[in-house]
Amino acid sequence: MGLLRSALRPAAEKVVTAVAARVAVRNHIDDVGSELLYGPAGRLNDRTLTRAQLDLLAAQVRDTTGVADAVPHVAQAYRMLVGLEGRCVGRIAGTTSNILGKLVAAPLLLPARSRPVRVLEIGTLFGVFAAGFHQQLLRYGHAHDLVIVDPLETVQLQPERERATDPSGTPVTLGTLLVNLRFGGVDLDRVRVERGLSSDPSVRSAVGDFFDLVIIDGDHSLAGVAADLAWAERIAAPGAVVVMDDYGDPGWPGVQQALDAHLAGETRFSLRGVVSTSAFLVAG
Ligand SMILES: C[S@@+](CC[C@H](N)C(=O)[O-])C[C@H]1O[C@@H](n2cnc3c(N)ncnc32)[C@H](O)[C@@H]1O
């Protein structure tokens, strides 16, 4: 036994030496570049995506839009998202999967029109999502005009939540929004910003109606979402796509409660599917 142990020792020592050399090389390189580029530093959410998340997203986009292979669509949107967020000021709110779901499924659901489509975003924060969405609409051939509603009051406003500086440290202002729209290549002549709350009658009348696409991402309380859905019923054009952001997100339980209650009542909207934490509706 003692003889066998001493015969094996040189081989075991060789393995230990090889492993130690590899560890030394890895420690020496100590590259944090990919972590800084894609990880959570400076953001709430990192921008990495696992194979399982990609496959799930592609399956949900397929079930919602009918596109058989959604992987190339998600891959293109992913590259755009990482580049855009790197250039812009602030951040896009939400997980990588949720953002990609909206960027891909909404333009795919939108019917082709011979005129610019009318888009309304309720709640824009820094406008980085709006800038990315603009690029996605163009990619799918949808010329568009965009109306944005947000109080732009330095911080994000949410009922029953404290006013606090955004984790990115960036103020929520008109200046930030305009810079991001420019970084995203948005023609500012095709954008109208209505500052204020979506519940404000003067904001509502300034916004107008007949929208082909409505993204609801403002007040996330049960009452706030219910009010925005009721407004969307009145201002969505026939065949419009309505995106209800943060549906099923445990951080915002009022969103799902409000939409489920809305769909159980009398409505023009029918649910086309859920991708990550966004519900996609189509107006009759
Ligand atoms: C979750 S953030 C929007 C995130 C943005 N759409 C994105 O994808 O990055 C919600 C924004 O809506 C604003 N907001 C809150 N209540 C609102 C309301 N009733 N009408 C319009 N905007 C509202 C907040 O101040 C905040 O800027």
Query: Going across the major beta sheet, what is the strand order?
Result: 3-2-1-4-5-7-6
Structural class: alpha/beta
Write down the CATH class.
Answer: Alpha Beta
Q: What is the annotated CATH architecture?
A: 3-Layer(aba) Sandwich
- List how many beta strands DSSP finds: 7
By CATH's scheme, which homologous superfamily applies?
A: Vaccinia Virus protein VP39
Instruction: Give the ordered list of helices and strands.
Output: HHHHHEHEHEHEHEHEE
β-strand percent reads 15-25%
Unreliable stretches (pLDDT < 50, length at least 5) are none
Q: Work out the radius of gyration.
A: 23 Å
Distance between the termini: 82 Å
**Number of helical elements:** 10
CATH T-level fold name: Rossmann fold
- Overall geometry comes to elongated
Largest sheet: 7 strands, mixed
Number of structural domains: 1
Helix content range: 40-55%
